[in-house]
Specification:
The protein is mainly beta and 400 residues long. It is 5% helix and 48% strand.
């Protein structure tokens, strides 16, 4: 399996299938202790489990087993491992159960107003909030319509929170979190300004404007990165809102990518214990200058590590670039073979990408010095980057 926090364990053997129980042996092939790693079982292994609800038993503790899909439609059974030492072998059992005592550590939502009405492009009048977790974006929908809660879908783990603007901007923004608890259900309920200021839970922490924020989808027109601005229609929904993984799925129909009309699917996933989100993109036409990147900021140091001997590389920035004038780190991890070019425009550090059969994926990771696990210095930030790189470039999960 090729996902962050799933690339780090080797499943040595499936020992037995008795009734509704599967026994596994897992081993950390890394030379570093791994915390909050996610194990993924392949679609063939999932088929061995009779229909039901399952939990995993590891070291005498219970955790949930969740069934999810990636953007290629592959079904996976996932479960978390709290920690595993270098080269350590653990025995695991998957059994019927709901792991009811295990806390909810990820969340995703898409909420909007009802009861009011549009006056031109603004939503006005009395309203209530509903969370259908599905929305076809209204025709001619524009930014600052005050219709969708914090202007788009949101997703979070116990380490980080994100949103993206579900309008012509289509830019990813970052929320800093001062608590490991789930906070997004309470963000943006009162108004669209409060979350831009420090609160007990945290705050909207990145100035995006016309830039790429952190990992927004774009096309490079030869001079600048252009976000997903012109489309025929857009549908967004929440395919997973689990305790250990949550996801946001968006389909952009008729995206005008620098003159080429195509359909684009985006699946963003976040796991428990992870600051990083996994972004998967699938295009139905060849787009030669698909791009992503991160904001430029005069107060931040920009640095890269492109190593052709590694499967994954990164670009990153660190400095006093948060809205609160605090130290913030922004990192973008990209498959080395999918990097076409590192470039820039006036407001962005840009990576142009080489999709494989229309598919490309990358990871985005923010840090903040006021997080509940603060990342105060560049050295702290580099440790976070090294942890992700170790897992991405580490052992692949295999089933013998």
């Amino acid at each position: 399996m090729k996902k962050i926090f799933t690339l780090i364990c080797l499943c040595l053997a499936v020992l037995q299938l008795q009734g509704q129980e599967i026994s596994l042996t897992i081993q950390n092939q890394s030379d570093k202790k791994l915390v909050d790693c996610m194990i993924e079982l392949s679609q063939s292994q999932v088929k061995k489990l009779p229909l039901g609800i399952y939990q995993v038993e590891i070291d005498g503790q219970e955790a949930p087993v969740e069934i999810v899909r990636n953007l290629k439609g592959e079904t996976k059974a996932i479960f978390p491992v709290a920690e595993i030492n270098p080269k350590e072998v653990k025995q695991v059992k998957i059994v019927p159960g709901q792991a009811v005592k295990y806390p909810k550590r990820t969340y995703a939502e898409l909420a909007h107003k009802i009861g009011g009405h549009f006056e031109g492009q603004k939503y006005a009048g009395d309203f209530s909030w509903v969370k259908p977790n599905y929305l076809r974006i209204p025709d001619n929908f524009r930014d600052h319509a005050y219709y969708i809660k914090y202007e788009g879908p949101g997703w979070e783990s116990d380490k980080a929170a994100f949103r993206f603007y579900l309008d012509e901007r289509n830019a990813i923004d970052v929320f800093g979190k001062k608590t490991p608890g789930i906070v997004l259900p309470f963000v943006g309920v009162d108004d669209y300004e409060a979350y831009h200021h420090p609160a007990i839970w945290g705050m909207d922490n990145t100035q995006v404007g016309k830039a790429l924020g952190l990992g927004s989808i774009a096309v490079w027109d030869g001079k600048q990165a252009v976000r997903v601005e012109k489309t025929d229609s857009v549908i967004c929904y929440i395919p997973a809102d689990g305790k250990v993984r949550s996801q946001v799925m968006t389909t952009y129909y008729g995206w005008d990518a620098n003159g080429t009309k195509c359909n684009l699917k985006s699946l963003i996933s976040i796991d428990a214990g992870s600051r990083a989100s996994h972004v998967e993109l699938l295009l139905d036409k060849e787009i030669i200058n698909l791009a992503t990147g991160i904001n430029k900021d005069k107060n931040a140091e920009y640095f890269t590590n492109i190593d052709k001997t590694n499967e994954w590389s990164y670009i990153a920035s660190f400095g006093k670039q948060s809205l609160n004038d605090d130290n913030q780190g922004l990192a973008l991890f990209v498959r080395t073979k999918q990097i076409k070019e590192l470039t820039e425009d006036n407001i962005n550090h840009v990576v142009t990408l080489l999709p494989e059969k229309g598919y490309v994926d990358y990871y985005i990771m923010p840090t903040w010095e006021l997080d509940w696990e603060p990342v105060v210095t560049k050295a702290d930030f580099m440790r976070c980057i090294d942890e992700v790189m170790n897992r991405l470039n580490g052992a692949v999960l295999k089933i013998n």
